[in-house]
Amino acid sequence: METSLTKAPRIEAVDALRGFAVMAIVLVHNLEHFIFPVYPTSASGWLHVLDQGVFTSTFALFAGKAYAIFALLFGFTFYIQSHNQRIRGKDFGYRFLWRLVLLVGFATLDAAFFPAGDVLLLFAVVGLVLFFTRNWSDRALLIAAVFFLLQPVEWYHFVAHLLNPTHALPDWKVGEMYGAVGEVTKAGNFWDFLWCNITLGQKASLLWAVNAGRFFQTAGLFLLGFYLGRTGRFVSSEANRTFWMRVLILGVVLFSPLYALREELMKGEAFIQQTAGTAFDMWQKFSFTAVLVASFLLLYQTPRFSQAVSNLRFYGRMSLTNYISQSVIGAIIYFPFGLYLAPYCGYTVSLLIGFAVFFLQVVFCRWWLSRHKQGPLESIWHRWTWIKSQK
Asked: Where in the sequence is the domain holding 135, given as residue range(s)?
């Protein structure tokens, strides 16, 4: 366990990596029309081919990986905050619980404009694992992270089904919930849209995360980020360069066989797809996430790359503001109560809109941070976290 009594410095590479993750999330969400699957009914041959290429490449690069980076850095941020309080002789744990309560409020704001797609509520719920493990040793943290990342629930159901063919997975009716939310969205009544999203939509989002294996994966990523912070792996050094090079090589080596096994399992019966298939899907995405993180951190140590992606530092410092505001912007662009451009935007056009949203947010971030220390929502979260505290 780390014992340094020095306040943890801000690490630019982490800010940029977080910015990269949120940028990727913005692009994926635009392709999905923010979980509103309404697209043009016809397109010319060349545009259809281009659309399919854009969809396949964007999802292969970012879907399930950008969120994983975001989760990993959530755990790292917990390390920074808890470490900075520990050197003052304080336990950050109970303050962190209050911070999670506040995150539920931000999750509700985001979910109001993002039908059944918010991830912040999942973070608020799973974040409890950081509270309970905050005083564990580094070794215990790593073991717990690996345990969660192995997807034990999926393997329990898989083995139970082998032993008893009548064993069935719980049916959470997620498809029906998404359908109901979609109908309310199509109706175009703004107030019904908001209410449905923050009630039924949030329920659907959490239960989808259960089915997709994300509860345990998120817990594992939180603990892994906490562990990497504890062991100083995000700090630029020759030893860490070697570490991330090994992570990169391991991720590259593991990705192809894991992906191939996942594809084979997804050809099997539904139960295998939903258990072993889900586990291998999580593993192949995690291995590719390792490739993305290691590549980014290694490249960031080169002046040319760090200069080229310098705007991501500003974007990452305002990740909460950017994450929630992109949901509001997307709702206005694509949904019936707004401009209702969804029926006219195929994957290519939607990706270009995503880039436009990202660039506009970057401009705003640079302007805001030239006048303030934190983004608007980050500032509120910070002030309310430390309310009535002699910090």
From this structure: 12-385
